[in-house]
Amino acid sequence: MSQSQQRLAQISSQLSSSVSPPQSARDAILSKNPDDIVITLSMRTALTKARGGALSSTSLEDLLVAILKGVKERSKLDPALLEEIVFGNVLEPRANYISRGATLAAGFPDTTATSIASRWCSSGLLATQAVANQIASNCIDIGLAVGVECMSQNPDDGAPKFGPQISNHPVAKDLTMPMGWTSENLSADYGISREIQDEWAAESSQKAEKAQKAGWVDDEIYAITTTFVDPKTKESKTVVANRDDGVRYGTTKEGLGKIRKAFPQWAPSTTTGGNASQITDGAAALLMMRRSTAEKLGQPIIGKYVASTVAGLPPRIMGAGPTIAVPKLLAKVGLSRDDVDIWEINEAFGSVLVHCVKTLGIDREKVNPRGGAIAIGHPLGCTGARQIVTALSELKRTGKKIAVTSMCVGTGMGMAGLIVSEQ
Amino acid sequence: MLEFRTQGYNGYSVKYSPFFDSRIAVATSANFGLVGNGRLYVLGLTANGIVAEKWFDTQDSLLDTAWSESHENQILAASGDGSIKLFDISLDQFPIQQWSEHSKEVFSVHWNLVNKETFLSSSWDGTIKMWNPNMPTSLVTLPTHSCTYSAQFSPHSPTLLSAVSSDSHLRIFDLRTPASASNHLVMSIPIHTPPKMRMGAAPAMGLPPSEALTHDWNKYRDTVIATGGVDRIIRTFDIRASGQGPMAVLPGHEYAVRKVSWSPHLADVLLSASYDMTCRVWTDGSAMGAKAEPGNPMAFGGGREMGRMGVHTEFATGVDWCLFGAEGWCASTGWDERVLIWDVRAMMGP
């Protein structure tokens, strides 16, 4: 190259450099940096009914071993490189024992540490946050977040018997009340009718039906072969859990309108078995590492964890949690609600869904595009991670980028997280 | 605003004389410096506007200039052919001294402001050289192994010098240290490092490394250096805390930043010239009561743009403050064949 050509090349490289600073918070969040926390594998089991579903005879131990083997198989990551697995779980009192044991039994070496993350319905997201924070602060390089719940094996017995300090406290005493009571409080305080809850619940089922029939959810699900014991005949047989069996095809608002009130004792008694989340078994897993690590190992980057936050509110209206957690999250990352392409908001109850979507002022079309917990179920510890799995799959299908996942948290909290798809 | 046309020559650098408030030198090149001659203008500011008191033509393009700090008539020119020329403006035509050690384009020359006896040059050949105008060969050669667009002596210490290069690093050399293996290099700061995370603030965004084109030592705070380059961002660093990342990040220019220059009058104010054709004035946020710029996610440290001059119609390449008189006068030059003399205060917003 002649000298003048070299000079020209130098000046044009100074002008056309690919380096351009992000101009908005959205650009900044979409930019790729070596120290980003990325998700390289996102998968879940089928969500199946705690009564009679394909996983309903599967113990927590067996469910964990199965999904951990799935992670090993699908990620093709050397198991020795996985430094910690954080399990989000709510109901199993001995989860510490079972998770450590299942990790070893699934074929991970004894060098892979385990821990538990528990904050009711946000446990799966809390586990994800814990792994991301450990990677960001350089405690570990590679971690796995798992959300898991066997509601068929671990029934929710509610609050323990409190002493006088809690039971006489004007706010804390509400913790003894069941979740259904909080749903009715929400309906009463904000005037949410039975009719609109049934309408939105039916829509959730219709969206789930459409997504299932079109095969959109297939890439979320890792099929598990397990043993199913028929509760009536006590016959056991081998089944493959590969589809969400809670989805009721042909659900209509009118059909849901005929279902009897679940909580006639608490006015306005708008909640029914049809417009509330189902009791379900399931597990979800997210493999996370720094972008630089993923590139070094050749792991496929499917998304990026950006941020998450939590906020508290009175326990008696715990269902409004997302209405305070989401604005807090968006303020932290500098995004507006219009920057978000998909919202995964946990449908703990129809009242929660209606109240949160209306209060946040978000486009209903973008909320739970594949249906939510009313349609496919709400395995408590699993949901936080499951919503990320669903959001990443839907972002991939639609070619969109940014998803917010949020859920109300029993005892009066809300959690929200932001992820970006890079598929 | 006063204007002078460098007809047929595109401006590369402009410098006020340290001795006279009415004398300005401009390094220019024909054909945008890609091929052809160079010309060093010595301009006088008179009651009748700007007049060319003298000019020197050179074989190759001229990319930078620096006035001697010890002799009012002597001036250096950095040439595209790798040579450095010393002219005496009381003489005609030819340089009184010439040095040809660099193997590629010389991008910057800078006179030692403290001992006034030595000067620096930096080059595309990946070296910085220190010279004494009375010596035929360079005194020291400092390798950077990377095209070095800008080298400067500290205005506070005769033995401390700095450079920025295309490898996105700010290097500090201290000539008091033994040469040994490190060639006097005492510090190498990656310019692209994001600011350190602070509690309660959103984490700063990282940017990939990019060519650094210019830098300048603060005239009041002896450890503060501003840098600019291809990533369009101006940053300030405190060399006492080199591991902390930038103190201030000032985004705003839409193309590469070609020149930054701290005010000789105010410790927090600097000027910049960019390929986006604007010259902008900034505060780095270190002054009391500085208001941070809201909105831009890259901004850090509380600094902000205070005003801009958008009269140039091609790349703005050089800008320099007048050292005398009312604070705020400056000169700029660019590829539009113009030298503009203007008052920064007239460009500042409310």
TrEMBL record, chain A:
Catalytic activity, as annotated: an acyl-CoA + acetyl-CoA = a 3-oxoacyl-CoA + CoA
Domain of life according to the entry: Eukaryota
Record protein name field: acetyl-CoA C-acyltransferase
Family, as annotated: Belongs to the thiolase-like superfamily. Thiolase family.
EC number: 2.3.1.16
Low complexity composition bias: residue spans: 9-26
Region (Disordered): 9-28
Record's keyword terms, sorted: Acyltransferase, Transferase
Keyword Magnesium: no
Domain Thiolase C-terminal: 301-419
Thiolase N-terminal domain location: 37-292
Cofactor(s) listed in the protein's UniProt record: K(+)
GO cellular component, one term: peroxisome
Active site: 121 (acyl-thioester intermediate), 378 (proton acceptor), 408 (proton acceptor)
GO process terms (BP): fatty acid beta-oxidation; phenylacetate catabolic process
InterPro entries listed in its UniProt record: Thiolase, Thiolase-like, Thiolase-like_sf_Thiolase, Thiolase_AS, Thiolase_C, Thiolase_CS, Thiolase_N
Alphabetical list of PANTHER family matching this protein: 3-KETOACYL-COA THIOLASE, PEROXISOMAL (PTHR43853), ACETYL-COA C-ACETYLTRANSFERASE (PTHR43853:SF12)
Record has Chaperone as a keyword: no
Pathway it works in: Lipid metabolism; fatty acid metabolism
MF (Gene Ontology): acetyl-CoA C-acyltransferase activity
From TrEMBL, chain B:
Gene3D superfamilies, sorted: YVTN repeat-like/Quinoprotein amine dehydrogenase
Keywords: Cytoplasm, Peroxisome, Protein transport, Transport, WD repeat
GO molecular function: peroxisome matrix targeting signal-2 binding
InterPro entries noted in UniProt: PEX7, WD40/YVTN_repeat-like_dom_sf, WD40_repeat_dom_sf, WD40_rpt
Main location: cytoplasm
GO cellular component assignments: cytosol; peroxisomal matrix
Protein origin, superkingdom: Eukaryota
WD repeat placement: 99-132, 250-282
Location of the protein in the cell: Cytoplasm, Cytosol; Peroxisome matrix
Keyword field contains RNA-binding: no
Keyword Flavoprotein in annotation: no
UniProt xrefs under SMART domains: WD40
Pfam families membership: WD40
Gene Ontology terms: biological process: protein import into peroxisome matrix
Family affiliation: Belongs to the WD repeat peroxin-7 family.
UniProt-recorded name of the protein: Peroxin-7
